[in-house]
Amino acid sequence: MIGTLRLGLALLGAVLPLQAVAQSPANLTALRGLAPVARLQTTPEGRAALDANLRVTGDIQAGTLTQPILLPFPEQQQLALRDCFITDGNATGLADGLGTTLAAAYRDRARYSDYKTFTSVAPAVADLIGYTNNVTKSDSNSGKYFFANATTNGKHPVSAEAAALLADGAVTDVFGKAYDRPAGSPGSDRFGNARPFQTLPRLRTYRGADYFGDASHSLDWLRGPKQDLVDSPSYPSGHTTYGYTESLILALLVPERYQQMIARAAEYGNDRIIVGAHYAMDVIGGRTTSLHAVAHLLANDPAYVGQIRKNPAVLDTAATDADKHVGVTDYRALLEEARAAMTEALKAGCGAPMAACAAQDTGRFKDTAANATFYGATQTYGLPVVHAATAGTREDVGRLAPEAGYLLTAAFPSLTLAEANAILTETQGPGGGFLDDGSEFGVYSRLDLYAAVGKAAALAASRGGASAAR
Fold this sequence. Notes:
Number of domains: 2
CATH superfamily of the largest domain: Phosphatidic acid phosphatase type 2/haloperoxidase
Strand order of the largest sheet: 1-2
Largest sheet: 2 strands, antiparallel
Structural class: mainly alpha
CATH topology of the largest domain: Vanadium-containing Chloroperoxidase, domain 1
């Protein structure tokens, strides 16, 4: 059994170089889906999107673009500073999406005592978070150096199968080349795809407190010493992948707060722009990577389950090698086990039924209309259409990405997969974005989970069925 004290790669988990190994089938799928970014310079539409990406990113970072964020901008900056620390071991940094009461109950059991040591609600919840994060992190990290310089870690070439994805005019270091900071040039990333704090003409920096309340500065999390991203390629955003992954886990464990957790995920990704670490395109890429991988996990896709993955969250020195590796053959079964443990823990902490506890929220996510407006603003960040063929169409989710429906049925089991995919089709966001090229992965880039969950919950309630059994 995995102990409750764990070692989280919270400071550098999103940017650690990958080992020089061949990409897994799941990695290759993610790379293929993320690859349209490498062809943006080949068309006028793509170049316009790249220009807009830098401009929108700069305006958000400086606070000159009025976003429907859920906090005043100075407060959002401070949250962005705290969000630089990744609570990948127990998702406690995202738990405010659970609402005032449930967040307190969760954090009473799941907390970080320092940068490396943390507790968890229950072993099943820890295993679920550890395995899911490991899978989505692998997909996200596989893109970092691939799109920077076609390597696995900055130096070692990718597999021949991966290299074949860089065809049809695709180039590496697209951001460095587009924004006059090519790899290795003064002020740039030596590997490629320099980040906004390296490419923006002006960067808004600020002081505040970090996750632990210690005095900090935004540059501490960009240039060090808290986190050194100078030579860390930008695309896709690892923090955003974590943010959506962890938020989805909490949403599926507490379906009554699904919409609010998705709003928290969007906020977490947006905070990466505010602090100067990522572009809008990075955030969209990270979000898409997470949704895609979690859906395939929920479908028990053999490419995503049935593997033994090293769990970096194990601290106990007495743990066996088996304890330090998590093997999941039935992801849905693990989810159900974790949900039961989560429900028991939160009920005990709240002292009332889950529905009543979930309704208690005096925080920034209490206004559903405000949540929806903010989430909608992060769908495309206003970036222009790149793929005209999908811009004016409603793509059939059930045909192109049938496993996507599990993102809803796992929380609302009275829905069929066909009904869930129909809801995702009906509620999908604007098409034609830089990833929306007609592929399965592209469909995930335009899913509007906030709207979809609202319809799914209403349909389930109309049948007298609630969310997943409590």
